[in-house]
Amino acid sequence: MDLATPLKGKTAIITGSNSGIGLGVARTLAEAGADVVLNSFTDNADDHALAAAIGKEFGVTARYIKADMSKPDECRALIVQAGACDILVNNAGIQHVAPMEEFPTEKWDAIIAINLSSAFHTTAAALPMMRAAGWGRIVNIASAHGLTASPYKSAYVAAKHGIVGMTKVAALETAKEPITANAICPGYVLTPLVESQIPDTAKKYGLSEEEAKQQIILERQPSKEFATTEQIGGTAVFLCSPAADQITGTTISIDGGWTAL
Fold first, then answer.
1. pLDDT at 3 over 90
2. What are phi and psi of 35, to 5 degrees?
3. Within 10 A of 95 (CB to CB), how many other CB atoms are there?
4. Is 53 within 8 Å of 30 (Cβ atoms)?
5. Which residues form the catalytic set?
6. Within 13 A of 59's CA, how many CA atoms are on the CB side?
7. What is the pLDDT, as a whole number, of residue 1?
8. pLDDT in tens, 141-199
9. How far is residue 30's CA from residue 9's CA, in Å, rounded to a whole number?
10. I need a surface site. Which of 12, 67, 208, 214 has the fewest CB within 10 A?
11. What DSSP string runs through the chain?
12. Is 14 exposed, middle or buried (0-12, 13-18, 19+ CB in 10 A)?
């Protein structure tokens, strides 16, 4: 194994990966030598250019495959179309915030479909490929909200708790095989989406942007620091390494101490 590119020869599929956490994880896996398949529900020139740029930067094969993670058939087709899946990173997700009695049914259904059910469908399609290859890694991007809760996020919390439970089931079903399944549980991560929300949050509460970050956005994160997409990607690489061969069915929190409270 080349220590610089320990994942050379492996193919990684990362759902919801044309921005944010998914893109950060895809880049880190590519840097470690994995060929990567990016995914989202769009299919435009920028998506394919993004994959091409990653491939050129890291000297790997990088492709973009459109698949709508709210549709079971497309979730499974993504894996089939990729042709190989040594590493599956289930990352796709959406969010909506509202009190339970006001939570729109269509939002509940969409969040459960994209944040939870999609991971079931991709995993079910990927496991036969992993078994045929004699090796596999399932890395589910859960959340601190997979281990704890916040008000007004009923669907998101339910989905992320479900991801943690499903991770354990996948681990038990593959426990005697060279396949592992684990969940990464980030707290607040500095993605372009979060960064774009800081000015509006500051304005809403009459605070400076730094005060808004510390007092509002990072209120529940004891470190008062955002996690980074590179840290999440690095943890995914670790979970794919020989050092993690006996780590399966568990969660790794990257939340600045949030779930220690």
1. no
2. -75, 140
3. 14
4. no
5. 156
6. 7
7. 67
8. 999 999 999 999 999 999 999 999 999 999 999 999 999 999 999 999 999 889 999 99
9. 11
10. 208
11. --SSSTTTT-EEEESS-SSHHHHHHHHHHHHTT-EEEEEES--SHHHHHHHHHHHHHHTS-EEEEE--TTSHHHHHHHHHHHS--SEEEE---------GGG--HHHHHHHHIIIIIHHHHHHHHHHHHHHHHT-EEEEEE--GGGTS--TT-HHHHHHHHHHHHHHHHHHHHTTTTTEEEEEEEE-SB--HHHHHHHHHHHHHHT--HHHHIIIIITTT-TT-S-B-HHHHHHHHHHHTSGGGTT--S-EEEESTTGGG-
12. buried
Q: What is the overall mean pLDDT for the chain?
A: 97
Euclidean distance between CA atoms 184 and 203, whole angstroms: 32
